[in-house]
Structures
1.
Amino acid sequence: MIDGGGKCPCFDMTEQTPVTDTKATPVPKVPTLPDTQTVTDVKHYTDRLFSFRCTRPASMRFRSGEFVMIGLMGDVNPKTGKQKPLLRAYSIASPSWDEELEFYSIKVQDGPLTSRLQHIQPGDDIILRPKPVGTLVHDALLPGRRIWFFATGTGFAPFASLLREPQTYEDYDEVIITHTCREAGELTYGRDLIDALKDDELLNEVIGDGFWKKIKYYPTTTREDSAKMGRITDLMRSGEAFSDLGVDPINPESDRAMVCGNLAFNIEIKEMLEDYGLKEGANSDPQTYVVEKAFLD
Ligand code: A2P
């Protein structure tokens, strides 16, 4: 597991109380923000969703699809006078080659972290532990012809990274991304990102002109009218998703899958993928599908 509240690597020796003079009043500890990065951009999509970008530590390397611990300093503990970092696991939504980092987050009004994080502005500091990990990485899958990215809500984040990752298009002939949300406005971040790939000169040059034609995007909503209503799980069970997309049902010879959504969704789709004959993989044991839980505050 991740060390979310580990010790601060930036401990400042000058803040220690001198030990020679035992009667001296202890010098109050000024909290030094550990692993600080600066917010460069913030975009709000709905009253429940926003994304932001921040600086990237020069030495930080990661594989597209991984996550890190990020957060803010918590409130001062009235008993000890100390502050502890309040950290949560967040998928990195930007690709590994991007010089900045991007995150896509829910806003929970009484959530310990996101009730505050939703108010960040460019120029503000956030804490970022530069130790990326995760299973939604190409290394955890065996070679295949077609890859499925299954997301609900903010579970789109790791796929925002992988959809901008050249290896995705080197490894697969077809890239299918399904995104199920409650309301239509919650699809905006993903839709805008996929639309922007078409005009991204750098990616079209690096990956190959028209690389985005490999993408089949299947957005659905469950609680508000949109072009396609329903949970992706139900739409796959009925066969509707496959006929809408004009593709064959999932089979273990050609198909690989990555899943990121809420817990109930992950459990349900995992079972379905197993029924199609896919097997769960990991970094140490690549197989035909991988799963990760989307962050909820
Ligand atoms: P629904 O509105 O029918 O619950 P949330 O915002 O709660 O994380 O949900 C995001 C989306 O995931 C919603 O559209 C929700 O549908 C859907 N969802 C929740 N549970 C499942 C599940 N077990 N299988 C498929 N979709 C699910």
2.
Amino acid sequence: MKTFASPLALAALALASATAHAGDVPPALGQRADTALEEDRHAWDFTEGLTTEVGPRQAGTEAEARGREWAMAWLREHGFANVASEPFAMETWVPGDIARARITQPFAQDLVVLPLGNSAATPEGGVEGELVHFRNVDELRAAPAGSLEGKIAYISHAMRPAQDGSHYGFAGPARWVGAGIAAQKGAIATVIKSVGTDYHRNPHTGGTTFPDGIAPIPAAAMSLPDADNVERMFARAADGDGRRAIRLRLELNPRELGETTSGNVVGEIVGRNPGLPPVLLACHIDSWWNSPGAFDDAAGCGIIAAAALHASRDEQPLRTIRVLMAGAEETGLWGSKAYSAAHLDEPIAVGLESDFGADRIWRFESNFRGTNADLHARLAKAVARFGVADSPVVATGGADLDVVRDQKGALIDLQQDGLRYFDLHHTPDDTLDKIDPAQLRQNVAVWTQVVGILANEPRAILNGSPEPSAPPVMDR
Ligand code: ZN
Ligand code: ZN
């Protein structure tokens, strides 16, 4: 485990902020962040409580509803005002309890798989077909129409861990769109190499999508060790005289529950001037069914709630700080869309989201570096002492910030270290023990510093149009 500042260093930092000059962060705001680094308990308390008392929180189900109730009780207990759940309707998919895969020839053996969100069920007993290997989605796209009739597509990729998580953009499409493309070419099912970087025998689930007019087919992810095994089988089957077909039998029993109700949990630290647009802090309350979602995204909710409390400690902020713990993020950003539809007309000063685990923040990004250079510079300077670098990358905001994107508003991304994230993402391993308390506190300190400055900023945050950015890669 790693700590980020000794008590001695913290004392030196406090001294440095006390002697700050004009244009710098007011000493009280710096002090609150320093205290959060040293002694925050709120983020851990939230994360530990939600993962222990509620556990897995599949979107649209009774378990997610218990998660909302738990979060609302926590927010009220800690002094948040206007705590509520804003309900919305959604189409709900549940995974069922059968996920079996077996190579039937030439090297018969069982494989470890889980269904992908929105997967269709197989008939009882499963479907069986020849497995066709595509090294990535582009290869699958290039397959001739009808060439997968009666067959099962297998989609690989070569995802690598990266501090900025950038390989998700490369590997993610295998899961996001692979099954839909295979279905269009006649496939009876799709299995993918899990979009992940660990070598545990844990499949990584996650949502997949089917184009309009294309009926869903069964779609599953296999663990990376199983996927490597299958790829070795392909290599051997291609050797020698003539190619031997590899056949797979897959059995899954997910189902659609139809329309159910989910909700967005909100709570506020009301500002001295509630007429000013609020600062919006987002996370999501749901998780996949196969883990208590400690990294994804109980910790994110813990971090934003803790930061709202620290940033307003001892002094009411100028602007309202609103937390949005969105529902049903994983299965299709239902909560983000519903929140935007309901609140599009209420201007928001700036939006930030925590949804990339609980490891340390290393990079600061905004979409107003050019239009409000003074504020960007003040924020970047204020977080530098926590080991956070300024970045020219334009912030795009998290998945639950549709409302801010739809308003073309101000966004900040406090980028977390993603080297471990895709070891755990959407696996049964996403549990509380993976969270390093010291790194969690560093998150809270950085958020406290940034939120404190934003919530006490009297002028417009964005000061113009958002800067152009690449489209966001959403965590789903
Ligand atoms: Zn997430
Ligand atoms: Zn997720």
